User: Fold this.
Amino acid sequence: MPDPTNVFPRETNRELKATALRALRGSFRRTLFPLMISRIAAGFPSPADDYVEKQIDLNTHLIQHKEATFILRVSGWSMRDVGIFDGDEIIVDRAIIPSDGKIVVAAINGELTVKRLRHVGESVHLLAENPDFPAIVLKEGEELCIWGVVTRVLHSV
Assistant:
């Protein structure tokens, strides 16, 4: 029996896999995290401030349009040079109007992919952020649907 959460047939070279695709709606348990007023050095250590500026709700911080926001799990390395890696989860907002230069989730002939949207003259290009992957230039007769704009990347360290 096929996996209902996988939007790609097994034989395709998939770029993006949707797992348990559902809108982020309903009631969220509100959890507040402390937001520190000082920045943390990624190079040399700096003196720690014990001052909390305010509390931050991650739902409010990460999600602009709750009813139109989804989380998708990425499969593949075509966007690695912008920090989107295999296994990462991306937050996708369908309420944001896609524009030139945005990273989008697009359906090309019914198959989902995550790429950078570029308008070149009269044509639309979907660019990988990895030189090992070619740009996708739509040909006559191909269907393109911009499914949403990527707003955040979530990955483990």
In short: Residues 78 and 128 are 5 Å apart (CA to CA). The mean pLDDT is 78. The radius of gyration is 18 Å.
